[in-house]
Amino acid sequence: MLLLRYAGYRFLTMLLTLWVVSIMVFVIINLPPGDYLSNQIAELRATGQAEGVAKAEFLRTEYALDRPIWEQYFIWVGMMPGPNGFSGLIQGDFGWSFEFDRPVGEIVGDALWLTVLVNLAAVLFVYAVALPLGVLAAARSETWVDYTAGFVGYLGLATPNFLLALILFYYGNKYFDLPIGGLMAPAFEGEPMSWLKVKSILLHLIVPTFVIGTSGAAAMMQRLRANMLDELSKPYVETAKAKGLGPAKLLTKYPLRMAFNPFVADIGNLLPAMVSGSVLVSVVLGLQTIGPSLLTALKSQDQFLAAFVLMFVALLTLIGTMISDLLLVLLDPRIRYGDRNG
Cβ(317)–Cβ(268) under 8 Å? Predict the structure, then answer.
């Protein structure tokens, strides 16, 4: 019951935080002078294209870009009626992409779940690699195991993701016949889900998962190793040894549990870091995620598309933080639901 109350409290704070983030995102996107349409109008006027200017002016009025910024924000969110009544984020209308001349919802529709899929696979890869290697490196500190794990970790941190992607593309295709580019075979794009399409997606996920997750796994492995070494040097470990507790049980019963707290707390930072860090990788690998769309939107000042993608990343951050908070409460008995007040 207490956990449900705490989860409800965290959900309400998440909604409040998301609202504040929406204000910041909208204001920051509108800080540069002009917007997509005003830039287009200036270009059309310079070339004497009157019909194009009339259409752009119509779109400015249609999407309330001729109104004060505070009105634009409330209309975008859906808290204030615009030219088409209440039609904003709350109502499921994500706006219009002027760059692609399509609704934002159509552009990001398939890209959203593919983005979640890629980054979820990368997160699972990070934990699957970092947890055993971090624990093993700490348990075999200052041995060849530790040095090898450290070398692999530093190599993962030092290698640029796009370079690793190109290397894996070449050797993966040459020796293992792995597909190059995209998240599915071209024949399955736009087709309904089927077992063959699932197999194609899973096969295409191998390289992106490894590329996107490598640096995160390396950093988390080093962090877990440091936390484990700190816990292993504490007096309670020596006491447990003196009482005859076996090495494996000694390692997992207390030190790993205590060192795992920061490991779990990193979930909130890991999800958005994966999304933002995968933008360049998505361009290099030709992935159908929201990364390339965000890059295009920011370059062209396509404000509705850019704002929605940034809000999506913020939502992932808040969901990840909420999950990590709930897991920490379950993991560590020292944390109490009422501790949030002090």
Answer: yes
Residue 60 parent element (H or E) = helix 50-62
The residues that bridge with 102 in the sheet, in sequence order, are 97
| CA separation, residue 290 to residues 28, 81, 118, 295 (Å) | 20, 29, 11, 9
3-class DSSP assignment, residue 102: strand
The DSSP string of 65-100 is: TTS-HHHHHHHHHTSS-BTTBS-STTTT---EETTT
Q: What is the mean pLDDT of the chain?
A: 80
Tokens of 164: 């690793």
Residue 103, H or E segment: strand 102-103
| Amino acid residing at 108 | V
175-232, pLDDT tens digit by residue? Answer: 877 777 777 877 777 777 788 888 888 888 888 888 888 878 888 888 888 888 888 8
Q: How far apart are CA 342 and CA 334, in angstroms?
A: 13
Neighbours of 249 (CB within 10 A): 10
The Cα 259–Cα 265 span in angstroms is 11
Longest dimension (CA), the chain: 88
- State phi, psi for 94 to the nearest 5 degrees: -90, 0
Q: How far apart are CA 96 and CA 111, in angstroms?
A: 16
C-alpha distance from residue 173 to each of 118, 182, 283 (Å): 20, 14, 19
The torsion defined by the Cα of 123, 157, 332 and 7, in degrees rounded to 10, comes to: -40
Q: Which residue has the tokens 């894996």?
A: 168
The DSSP output letter for 178 is -
Q: What is the DSSP letter of 286?
A: T
- pLDDT score, position 212: 81
Provide the pLDDT for residue 220.
84
Asked if residue 14 has pLDDT above 50, the reply is yes
